[in-house]
Amino acid sequence: MTRLAWRIIGVLALSLTPAEREVALGDLIESRTAAWCSLREIVGLVARRQLQRLNSWRPWVAIFCLALPASFVLMGTSVSVSSTIQRMRWQMVATHDVLNCLSIAFLLACASWSAGFVVSSISHKTLWLTGFSCLLPCLFCFFRFRIESLPRLSLFLFVLPAVLGVWQGIRTMRIRLSIAAALAIAMTMWMAPIWSRRFWLCDAALLWPSWYIVATAYRRAATKKSAAA
Amino acid sequence: MLGEFEYLLITAAANLGENAYGAAMRESIMQATGRNCSIGALYTTLDRLEAKGLVRTWMAEGTPQRGGRSRRMVCVTPAGRAAARSFYSSIIRISNRAPWAVHDTEDAG
Known about the structure:
The complex is a heterodimer of chains A (229) and B (109).
Chain A: H1 2-13, H2 18-30, H3 35-53, H4 58-90, H5 95-123, H6 127-144, H7 159-170, H8 177-197, H9 201-228
Helix pairs in contact in A: 1-3, 4-5, 4-6, 4-9, 5-7, 5-8, 5-9, 8-9
Chain B: H1 4-16, H2 22-33, H3 39-51, E1 55-60, E2 71-76, H4 78-95, H5 99-108
Antiparallel strand pairs in B: 1-2
C-alpha cells in the first residue's frame, strides 16, 4: 500500500513545476511523513496550485467563450454533416447538396481544430477544467439525442480535429501568418452564407479562435521583425 | 498588514537564520503552534510573501536525508522584518488589556 501511495504521489507531483516537485518531495522524505499523509499533502499542494491558476482570465475565457458555446454548435454541425451523409447513402442527392455537405464538413474540421488549438494555447495548464466544461454539454446532448436513423456518436465528429488542435497547441506549434490568415478568411467566407440566413451568437464562438490565431501569428511576426531590425 | 500564517512563516524563517528552508520551517511552526502545517499552505504563502518582497527564496543543494532533493531556502528581507515588527507591535498593543494577557501577567507575577 505504501508503494502504491508513493506511486500516486509521483504521478500527482508531475503537475507541479520540476523545482517545486523536488522541494516538496524532499521535504516529505526529510520529515519522514507517512505515505498516505504525504499523499494528502501533495493533493493539497496540487489543488492549491490548480486553484491559483483560476485567478487568471485565461481559463474563464477558454470555458465560457469557447468550450461551452462551441461544443453545442459543433455538436449541431456534427449532426448536420452526419444526417447529410446518411441521406447520401440511401438516395440520390443533387451535386450542390454534396458540395454543401463537404463545405460544412470542412468548416466543422477547421472550427474544431482552431477551437482546440486556441483552448490549449491560452490555458494549457487548466485543460482538465476546460475539458470538463466541454464534457458536460456533450453528456447532456448524448443522453437527450433522439434521432433514430443516426447513431448517438454522430454528435462527436468534431472531437478528433479538436483533440488534434489541443495536442498541437500544447506542443506550441507555430503557425505562419499566411496560413492562419487563409484559414480565418476561408472560415469567415464559409460562414457568411449561414449568417445571412440566421445570426447566432454561438456561431461567433466558432469563428473567433481562427482570428485569434491570426492575431497571435501577426504579433509574433511583428516581434520577430522588430528584433531583426 | 501581515496575516497570522504569514507572520508565523516570517518569524520561523528569521529564527532559523541560514538554515531556513521548507521542511525546517514547517517543523518549527508545528512545534510552536501544535497544529499541522501543510506544504500546500507553506509554499503558496511563501510565493505570496516573495511576490510582496517580504522574503527572498532560492534553491540549494539537497542532503542525503532528503534523498538528494533540493531545498528552497528562505531569507527575510528588511521589508519583511519591518512588516513582522509592525504585526508584532499591533498584537502586543491590542492584547494589552485582554483578559488572557492580564492572566498571563498575574501568573508570571
